[in-house]
Amino acid sequence: MVLIDKKYNCVLKRLLNIVFSTFIILMMISCDSDSSIKHLKIGHGLDRTHPVHLAMEFLADRVYEKSSGKIEITVYPSQQLGTERECLELLQIGSLAMTKVSASVLEGFAPNFKVFSLPYIFRSDEHKFTFFESDLGLELLRSPKEFWLRGLCYYDAGSRSFYTINKPILSPDDLTGLKIRTQESPTSVKLVNSLGGSATPISWGELYTALQQGVVDGAENNPPSFYLSRHYEVCKYYSLNEHTSVPDVLLISTIIWDDLSGEEQKWLEDAAMESYDYQKKLWQKATVEALEKVKEAGVEIYYPDKELFAEKAESLLLEFSNQPEVWKLIQKIDEIQ
Fold it and tell me: What is the radius of gyration, based on Cα positions, of the chain?
């Protein structure tokens, strides 16, 4: 019995050694064949049907083509890799390559980003896009680099407007006494308060329940987000006063960026700008479809006089005359034709 056990153990060891050696060889072959390919991940909180997610998928395809397969980008939507804040933190330590955040969130890293949360900064979509593509817009895009973040491009997020549960917002007076959800942005909070509402910062993922339970009386966002979030199931009044135009920003970790060659960086930058152009078209289509869908679901859509809101919020703009850098940026944006 002892002899049989020893023989069995000997055979087992040899088999294990063969299996282990085969595994190591296969791993080496895999590493050798994959050593020239760089794998990058994008994490974000939007769903797969969102125009920004589709733009990121387009970006991944274009980078793969431009690099002849040397750079592979995988996009992880719906907070698979963490919340917006968690993804930002992962970028800062180089554990995640890219993410998308609202420009409002970036004011905590680069103060000049707060201009996007100010009311009626842009005269039109054309004015907004001209700024995004200008040297001034690109300079702002790169400004969070001291926080290990580098902007690659803007993504259009339309204009933000109020949607509410019990009544429409036709003038700033209608906001009196209402709790309105805002992003976790000091400037967004000031804006809603300056218009007469009671700003209540709540995370995007918790907002549906907050509306359903009456924690807040309404919120503000663009039509595609209003539709895709299904907030229209609770809020039946949508007032398109379009008080702000806050873009999304595609960011890359500077730790990852600095590890790319000059050629690789150019592939990525060029593909990002192509995805920006692609996303603009997707966004326009998504906006029209969203308004049609929420209207079919029983939402009443209003087009209030924007001047009423602009006049009421003028005092907020004047507050920034004491912040030279932001005030100068506001003036430069206004001068863009």
Answer: 25
Reported as a pLDDT band with limits 50, 70 and 90, residue 35 is low
Statement to judge: residues 211 and 128 lie in one domain? no
List the domain range (segments joined by +) for residue 186.
Answer: 160-245+296-335
Average pLDDT over residues 250-266: 98
Spacing of C-alpha 251 from chain mean position: 9
pTM given for the model: 0.83
Sign of CA dihedral 102, 105, 110, 115: positive
Residue 30 lies in a domain: no
Strands 98-102 and 248-253: what pairing? antiparallel
Q: Are both 69 and 139 inside the same structural domain? A: yes
| Contact yes or no for 112/319 (Cβ under 8 A) | no
SS3 state of residue 128: helix
Q: For residue 171, give the amino acid letter.
A: S
CATH number, residue 253: 3.40.190.170
Residue 262, classed as helix, strand or coil, is helix
Local confidence band at 23 (pLDDT 50, 70, 90 cut-offs): very low
Contact criterion met (CB below 8 Å) for 287 and 158: yes
Please state the rounded mean pLDDT for residues 166-183: 97
Same domain flag for 57 and 202: no
Sequence-distant (≥ 6) Cβ neighbours of residue 314 within 8 angstroms = none
